[in-house]
Amino acid sequence: MKTTRLIIVAVGGQGNLLASKVLGEASLSAGIPVRMSEIHGMAQRGGVVESAILFGDAGSTIISDSEADVLVSFEPSEALRAINKCNSDTVVITNLSPLPPFTATIGQGTYPDIENIQDIIRNKTSRLIAFDATQIAISAGNVMSVNMVLLGALIQTGILPLSADAVKDAINTRTKKAFSRINQNAFDLGFRTAENS
């Protein structure tokens, strides 16, 4: 089976690891070989979190520079930070709602211009799907469902060998029952947003 390489980047607390587990669960349920690895930042909340997920026949969990088929970013500057993993065929999906680091908040650093981030990504990759996933999550019923919004957008692209139903089943299995309806709604909204992007 052809290998598909996915990088997910986020700031701690945004739900990157849960999104990775949902994709892993969906893959295993569908009989698709999957390998995953994670890198955690200095802090549980606020540090960088990166997941590498390989679907299909892969001998390693490492995704080297220029090897990602798709990059999903929960925060725009994190997409910029991970751009070295992309190539001219990579599809990038990013949330446009920024979470500036502490240094930028206190005036010790500057946050990059969102339009400039998008221009850099467009010039390096084949496709950019960029939208305010935070606002969509709020409209779904919970700001914490940004991860599910972005999963919906990811699955809509058809890049991964996973169906929407398989991922939605995994969302039901992996997320708390109290949030199941909201998470399903967030997934559907993300899917529809990517369809129109």
Describe the 3D structure.
The chain is of the alpha/beta class. It has a single domain, classed as 3-Layer(aba) Sandwich (Pyruvate-ferredoxin Oxidoreductase, domain 3), CATH 3.40.920.10. The chain is built from eight helices and six strands. The protein has helices at 16-29, 76-81, 102-105, 114-124, 133-140, 146-156, 164-174, 180-195, and strands spanning 4-11, 34-40, 48-55, 70-73, 91-95, 127-131. The protein has a six-stranded mixed β-sheet with strand order 2-3-1-4-5-6, sandwiched between helices. A hairpin with a 7-residue loop joins strand 2 (34-40) and strand 3.
Order of helices and strands: EHEEEHEHHEHHHH
Secondary-structure-based class equals alpha/beta
Helix amount, in percent? 40-55%
Contiguous helical run count: 8
Please provide a brief summary of the model.
Helices cover 41% and strands 19% of the residues.
Task: Map the helices and strands.
Layout: E1 4-11, H1 16-29, E2 34-40, E3 48-55, E4 70-73, H2 76-81, E5 91-95, H3 102-105, H4 114-124, E6 127-131, H5 133-140, H6 146-156, H7 164-174, H8 180-195
Parallel strand pairs: 1-4, 4-5, 5-6
Antiparallel strand pairs: 1-3, 2-3
Helix pairs in contact: 1-7, 5-6, 5-8, 6-8
Please describe the structure with a list of short key phrases separated by commas or semicolons.
8 helices, Pyruvate-ferredoxin Oxidoreductase, domain 3, 197 residues, 6-stranded mixed β-sheet, globular, alpha/beta
